[in-house]
Structure formats: C-alpha cells, structure tokens
Amino acid sequence: MYDVIIIGKGPAGAQAGIYLGRAGFKTLILYKDDGSLAKTDYIENYYGYNQPIEARKLLEEGVEQAKRFNVEFREDEVVMFLSSEDNQILVKGLKEEYKASYVIIAAGMTRKSLNVPGLKDYEGKGISYCVTCDGFFFRNRKVAIIGYTRFAEHELNDLLMFTKNAYLLTNGKDMEFDVSALKEVTVINKQINLIYGEDQVKGIEFKDGSKEGFEGIFIAYGTADASSFCVKSGIATDKGKILVDDSKMTNIDRIYAAGDCINSYMQVATAVSDGALAARSVIERLKADRKNAK
C-alpha cells in the first residue's frame, strides 16, 4: 500500500515524485517506457542549463533525484484504475496490481492508436475500449479484439470469460505474444480497411475486400496509453487530453493528472510545473488525512 502512485517517469512524474518523496510519503512510480522525451536529442530551452543538455540525461537525472528521496520505480503497463469505498485506488498493471491513497497520471501525450473509417461512428454502438466494463454485454456473442501487444493479450483473457467466439485482429502487425495457448481465439492478420454497420456495428472490411461480421469490437491497439486507461476507468477527457481542475484533480476523487496528458503546450517546463502542482495538492490532502485519522 502506497500513499501515492504516479504513472510515468518523465519530467511531470519524476517532479511529482521528488516533491512527494521529499515530504516523506511512500511513493511508487510505474512506467512502461522512457516516454517521448527520450526520443529527443537535446534540450536547449530549459531553465538552468547554459548549454544544450541531452534529453536522456535530463530524464535520468530526474529519476535519480527522485530515487534519492526513496521513491520506488517499477516497470509495468497500467491498464485500469478502480476506486474503492475505503478511499483506496487499485491500479491494475499487466504484471501486478497496486494500491494507493492517491494517483497522479503523468503518462505523457495520449496517442490515437487506431485510425480507420467507422471507428468513431460506432463507439458506444458495439465498439468499446474496456472488456472489464462491457464484456458482459457480449456474452456468448461473436466478438473481435483489435490489437497485437500484451495489452491485447490482457483484454483477450478477460473476454474469454464472457465468450468463446473470440477473434484477434492484428491489422497486419506482428503479434508480441504467443496466442497459441488461447485455443478458442481465431487470429486474422489482414489489414483493416473500415468498420461498418447501421445503428450498431456489424463487422469489419479488410484491405483485400473480404469482410467478417461481428456483434462487438474491442479496441486494444498498441499500448495502454493514458487515453485508453482513462476511458476504461471513467476519467473525463476532451480531444485526447485529461480534464483536470485547478488542483490538477480529474473528475474522479483522488486521481490527479499532470504533464503532456493535460497540457497542449508540450514542454519540459510546463510538465515540471504540472508535476509540482499536482504533488502539492496531494501532499495537502495526505496531511489532512493523517490529521483526521488521529
């Protein structure tokens, strides 16, 4: 059990961790990769550096600084949050499950993971992003999951609790897991041309002109970025950005967000600022919680 779990080890996440760790709160940072900043060569416009600094070096120094204040780091891919009545938040990862009193999402810029005609038209009309949320409605029906990564594997395992008539559509991508153990699953490797339907989704047309009918389609394409686990967890977004109030809290109590996932001005400076402000808000609440518990 942690006081705070932070999702993402970029500038926003590390800065939040530094503030929380220095304040003496038990903090865990979960990350699935080094983030988009690691793909940048040099940073020239960040305060305090007279000469350009390598982006990766800046990231590494932020992580080491957080570790100096006893912040823990674990590599895992977050897929969902669940809030409980006892003011705890369950963070579900592909590897483990974690619990905390508060969460700060600092997962970077959300990405549109799949762009095919018809996708947006049938969201909520047979297309879903959350098997845990909506799998029950497709019990014993013919259902597809679009994906190819371990995130798709996670969703497939959940889907098989509701139906054995399951398909995995890779959209022409190489699978990153062994699907052979899931004997009920039919794999289609063709590239997707469009998703079609009427009032509800009806199926998928492939680039080769063939079609396959489905009663439901789950999107688990690429990795579980902020946009996907926010949709699954009921966190409000607008145009791919997480909505927060002045304290950096989302529409769900005890879940905060900071950095590129809330900010259209994607700079290290604003990410660090967001991380500090989100951490400060959480610190004040943690102090109040401890005072009330006495």
Describe the 3D structure:
The chain is α/β, with parallel strands linked by helices and 294 residues long. The chain folds into 2 domains: 179 residues, 3-Layer(bba) Sandwich (FAD/NAD(P)-binding domain), CATH 3.50.50.60; 100 residues, FAD/NAD(P)-binding domain (3-Layer(bba) Sandwich). The protein contains 6 helices and 19 strands. The strands form 5 sheets. Strands 1, 2, 5, 6, 7, 8 and 19 form a 7-stranded mixed sheet that branches. A 5-stranded parallel sheet has the order 9-16-10-11-12, covered by helices on one side. Strands 13-14-15 form a 3-stranded antiparallel sheet, with no helix packed on it. A hairpin with a 4-residue loop joins strand 14 and strand 15. Helix 1 runs parallel beside helix 2 and helix 1 runs parallel beside helix 6. The protein is globular and about 60 Å long. The mean pLDDT is 90.
